[in-house]
Amino acid sequence: MISIEGLSVAFGGNTLFDNITYVINKRDRIALVGKNGAGKSTMLKIIAGLQAPTSGRVNMPKDLTVGYLPQQMNLTDSRTVMQEAEQAFAHIFELQARIERMNTELAERTDYESDDYQELIERVSNANEQLSLIGAANYQAEIEKTLIGLGFTRDDFNRNTSEFSGGWRMRIELAKLLLQRPDVLLLDEPTNHLDIESIQWLENFLATRANAVVLVSHDRAFIDNVTTRTIEISMGHIYDYQVNYSHYVVLRQERLEQQRRAYENQQKQIQDTEAFIERFRYKATKSVQVQSRIKQLAKLERVEVDEVDTSHLNLKFPPAPRSGDYPVIAEGVGKSYGDHLVFADATFTIKRGEKVAFVGKNGEGKSTMVKCIMGEIPFTGTLKIGHNVKIGYFAQNQASLLDESLTVFETIDRVAVGDIRTKIRDILGAFMFGGEASDKKVKVLSGGERTRLAMIRLLLEPVNLLILDEPTNHLDMRTKDVLKQAIRDFNGTVIVVSHDREFLDGLVSKVYEFGGGRVREHLGGIYDFLESRKLESLRELEQRNPAPPAADKKATAPKAEASASAISAGNEGSKLSYEEQKELARRLRKAEKAVADVEKEIADLDAQIASLEEKLATPDGAADTTLYEQHGQLKKQLDDAMWRWSEASESLEQLQKQNK
Asked: For this UniProt entry, which segments traverse the membrane (predicted)?
């Protein structure tokens, strides 16, 4: 669908991409990987048409639609959730405005018999047909359905977007992209501000609803679950692997080892040849052989080993001064904003040396609890900070608070005091800001580089309680691994607020879940917690649908799964009356027929699209513009059918639950 040809990008004499070529196909699930600053976000912006390359081009069909989710939200605080979601249908509003202008022109003109007037009538007619084709009449229903599907309530629709946390704003952007139904989704760090449940929803969405996907993410579990192709950007070049990230890591290592062996063999050959030339250079009897070897060396295509960034992040937290046995004791802690209860009666104790995680949906109070511990906001109840506790705090928005006008060195120099000032260069070097990098302006740093710079603040004085609020946002995978090991080795107490399952795995021994106005303690690691949540959800379902008593079971006829005919009028164990059972059976038959009908429609549309794509693959078909229009119309019909199938299946599922 999209062809990238000879792409090159250079900034201030530095080459970011050098003659890159590759293709994005239908249904591709591509992960763009590489270290911070390699150019992953730049690549997405170029494909999205937001940035021009130095040379090369991006080719795509005119009717191809691209949806781009940037790292930073561009929502305006002047719109409500509904108004922001409506931006997905800007093309409808533009078309409606154009029709209105043409209708006004028709009403004002009097040259009814002229060719121009007839042409104007034709344009109005075509525009109205186009408006009807794209489903302008029911876009409001589409918006409501999508927002509710993403967890919003109808009460949220008229709330201002500024009232929502970063994770919920991300969902608004995802809703807009879903409503646009793009052919290609470009996602830049989509999980940065999402909670674990939202990430799992996004994984499911990308697997079942999206067409082609190109994403940048440092969440290893997320990209492994979503992608099937990995494109590595390294030192201006790309390496394309038709596998997911975990397999890519293995294949990349094999590639590097093969290159090194070939390089070493060639270097030995070159040394032997140069030694022969040097030895016999001045012997007339060997002049022919010497000249032959010189030409051989000149023509030799040198094997190059891909440059590997050997700069190493040396992150080690200073030894923690000894604190009291219990750095944090919370008893009946509560917090409300007006009538909105965030959490109540939170009671827990964190022991010295423990490493715990705060998890839960966005807006449920994780960062709020951190602010309570920091003493930044008032609360009810008792919160005791232990003896000699010194807190090091990394805020969620720490990187964005940096002064962009300063250099890297100036940023640290302004906060360092005492003897540490003499070691600033060494500290910056340990964080891969050595040499000229320390003189870079903050405004030119990537998100990961800014996060590393903000992390240095934690090293400027010894602490014994580390509170890290989303510390992995924007960090590449290697840096995350280094940070994880540094936290493991830290001999103090750690509270981590994070949604990154891979990062938390093997790091924390206790999980505090925030949700529903409560804070619940779970012993064990993050995957133990996720497994326990599944079990609890199953128990909740069992409580909502209690099994009938044994006596009733004997009187109940066996039911065929998902079948309307399973409802027997003589079901003695049923709480429904005979008339209610008949009505439920009728509704089930109707729901089953609706699902079957739309499945048949989807199969027919798939067959028509496949037939049309075969024609488009021929030279004659590729030149026929009407085929492209038909293809676009069929794709829209298929999308509509898929939506209707989703709704019909959900209705059927609800009726089947009533029938159990």
From this structure: none
Cα 308 to the center of its chain, rounded Å: 26
| Owner of token pair 């200073």 | 318
> CA-CA distances (angstroms) from residue 463 to 351, 440, 497, 511, 550?
15, 29, 18, 22, 61
DSSP H helices, 281-338, are 287-299
Asked if the model's pLDDT at residue 567 lies above 70, the reply is no
Would the pLDDT of 399 be above 70? no
N-to-C CA span, the chain: 46
The answer to whether 180 and 90 have CB atoms below 8 angstroms apart is no
Query: Distance between CA 344 and CA 351 in Å, rounded?
Result: 22
Q: What pLDDT is stored for residue 174 in this prediction?
A: 82
Residue with tokens 């030409």: 295
Q: What are phi and psi of 379, to 5 degrees?
A: -155, 170
What are 573's two structure tokens? Answer: 């164990």
Tokens of 129: 């047909």
CA distance 110 to 370: 71
Pairing of strands 29-33, 229-234: parallel
Q: Are 31 and 229 in contact (CB under 8 A)?
A: yes
0.70 cut: is pTM over it? no
Please tell me whether residues 635 and 531 are part of one structural domain: no
Angle between the N-to-C axes of helices 166-180 and 196-208, in degrees from 0 to 180, rounded to the nearest 10: 10
Q: Are 465 and 492 in contact (CB under 8 A)?
A: yes
For residues 10 and 16, give the distance between their C-alpha atoms in angstroms, rounded to a whole number. 5
Within 10 angstroms of residue 447's Cβ, the number of other Cβ atoms is 22
- Long-range contacts, stretch 410-414, CB < 8 angstroms, 24+ apart: 411/442, 411/453, 412/453, 412/456, 412/457, 412/460
If asked whether residues 367 and 493 sit together in one domain, one would say: yes
Same domain, 271 and 380: no
Residue 241, both tokens: 């692997």
Alpha-carbon span 467 to 317, nearest angstrom? 13
Question: What is the CATH number for 600?
Answer: 1.10.287
d(Cα 231, Cα 239) in Å, to the nearest integer? 6
Task: Please say whether the beta carbons of 479 and 448 come within 8 A.
Answer: yes
Residue 267 CB neighbour total at 10 angstroms: 12
Q: What residues pair up with 59 in beta bridges, in sequence order?
A: 3
Residues 417 and 530 in one domain: yes
C-beta of residue 259 within 8 angstroms of C-beta of residue 305: yes
Nearest to 597 by CA among 565, 645, 560, 563: 645
Q: Are residues 163 and 231 in the same domain?
A: no
Judge residue 643's burial from the number of C-beta atoms within 10 Å of its C-beta, 0-12 exposed, 13-18 middle, 19 or more buried. Answer: middle
Between CA 580 and CA 349 the distance in angstroms is 53
Angle at 504 between CA 247 and CA 510, to 5 degrees: 145
Give residue for tokens 């839960």.
Answer: 360
Contact 331, 347 (CB under 8 A): yes
> Which of 228, 303, 296 lies closest to 263, judged by CA?
303
The tens digit of pLDDT for each residue in 27-81 reads 899 999 987 778 888 999 999 998 999 999 999 988 788 888 887 655 566 788 8
pLDDT tens profile 625-656: 677 677 777 777 776 777 777 677 777 777 77
Domain count for the chain: 5
For residue 20, what pLDDT is reported?
A: 92
Could you please report the per-residue DSSP string of 540-606?
HHHHHSPPPPHHHHHHSPP--TT-GGG--TT-TT-SS-HHHHHHHHHHHHHHHHHHHHHHHHHHHHH
CA distance 451 to 23: 32
